[in-house]
Design a protein that fits this description.
Elements (H helix, E strand, L loop, with lengths): L3 E2 L2 E5 L6 E5 L3 E2 L7 E3 L14 H13 L3 E5 L2 E5 L2 E2 L4 E5 L3 E5 L8 E6 L2 E6 L3 E4 L2 E7 L2 E3 L8 E2 L5 H9 L3 E2 L5 E3 L2 H7 L13 H6 L9 E4 L2 E6 L2 E3 L6 E4 L2 E6 L2 E3 L10 E4 L2 E6 L2 E3 L5 E4 L3 H7 L3 E7 L2 E2 L4 E5 L7 E12 L3 E6 L7 E23 L31 E22 L6 E13 L1 E6 L1 E13 L5 E6 L2 E11 L3 E5 L4 E6 L7 E5 L7 E3 L1
InterPro entries: GH28_Enzymes, Glyco_hydro_28, PbH1, Pectin_lyas_fold, Pectin_lyase_fold/virulence
Protein name: Glycoside hydrolase family 28
Family: Belongs to the glycosyl hydrolase 28 family.
Amino acid sequence: MNKILKTVILLIFTHGAFAQKLAEPTVSLPTFKKDTVSITAFGAISGGRHLNTESINQAIDQTHKKGGGVVLIPAGVWLSGPITLKSNINLHLAANALLQFTKDFSQYSLVQTSWEGIPQMRNQSPIWALNQQNIAITGKGVIDGNGDAWRMVKKAKMTETQWKKLISSGGVLNEKGDIWYPSQSSLKGASYKDPGLVEKGKNAQFYEEIKDYLRPNMILLEKCERILLEGVTFQNSAAWNIHPLMSADLTIRNINVRNPWYSQNGDGLDIESCKNVLVEQSTFDVGDDAICIKSGRNEAGRERGMPTENLWVRNCTVYHAHGGFVVGSEMSGGAKNLYVDNCTFIGTDIGLRFKTTRGRGGVVENVYINNIFMKDIPGEAILFDMYYEAKDPIVLSGEHREPPKVEFLPVTEATPQFKDFYINNVVCDGAAKALFIRGLPEMHIKNIQLTRLDMVAKEGIDIQEASNISLRDVKLQVEDASKQIAYILNSNDIKLHQLEVKNANIFHLQGERTSTVDVQGLTGAQSVIKADFGANKNVININ
């Protein structure tokens, strides 16, 4: 009988902001026969030099044909090419088992799959399952994707010693000499826009010529049901580390996900168009977003029309990553009913990161976040941004960025939406900015309620093109000399209640569409109102 995780909790947010019952997703766990077979029974040889692809796949296939069970990878170093998971198989890694995937790219076939939310040709994932049920990867071992053999590397992300060592290993540099590629084929792929995109005019020869550029996600579980990932360390992926796609009933617990912090597209966990998901008690230290919610990109994602929904993340820790808990930017199918509780972000570029851009479409709504603890955040503690530009969240050394062009465009199906977010009890000891909200002139970010925030940051609150934003019971220590408590641009119905401020006193209003800013219970600062670029001081009420 499947074990059903079904719990109802009550989160009560203070000061009457809201009291909302949050139903945990019902997630069905897989079950397996106890029959266990070792890959050594099929001729697998440890040591890291013998290619065990055939042995491991035979073990999986034969066990699957007998009704399933446990395929054991014992202690040792096991080299392999791509592995195909099948229904009713628990791939179990014993303690001290290292499953390492080969850097011989010829072992990986080019296949049509999905990359960043659209149909693309990519190299086959090291571990892959399609239309399977009742599958698991468990144990105490390590799975290593040998991603260093695949990834390009930006010079700005390495020390001088690391860069010199990398160049001496081989590979080629781009014209500027600031990006290393493992091969000429990889460099050639970088010269095209969306080179893997499946479209007319591209034949098999085209993809073969840029094969090295088409890096695989390490774990791809597509259209599968009842999945368990438990106990294992997943590391060093060529692109994303773990990618459940259009799957249901997914449980992830007690895993470690690792990638070098310089790893390009080195995401930890990308959950795309999935439903009924539980992620708990896991640790992430990666090169891109850590726990990321997606649902397809642009027209392809909207046509798929599969939101990620009914998802729970709890008791997780994130170290280095571009974002701790992230939605977007490929969220064109939407996302809803997302619950995040008791998570810690340490040294993460951005803590809570919600990103999209024009062209995506999709609605992200009903997001409930509680008990988030952060320290040493180089960027924003909490960020909502509808001008995502596919760049690192922290500006690299020597990099110059122009601000996005602001214009009022018609609302279409390609206009994204963020609304109905409820965030409670966030503590952040050190960030570049406490809160950043930036919507579009034609589509404001709407109905964001934040309660019980305790923030130490260089800059305070930045709200642009937003409506019905409520902050209640906030402690804010600002370290920047600008002394701005809040900057508000072309936004309306902004509530700042029970606000305790240190080292800041300015409310800066801009834009003729800014209206109805209500500040109550301000302590620790004598307020100064600054209004320009069409804003009127009379729209703010301070009591």
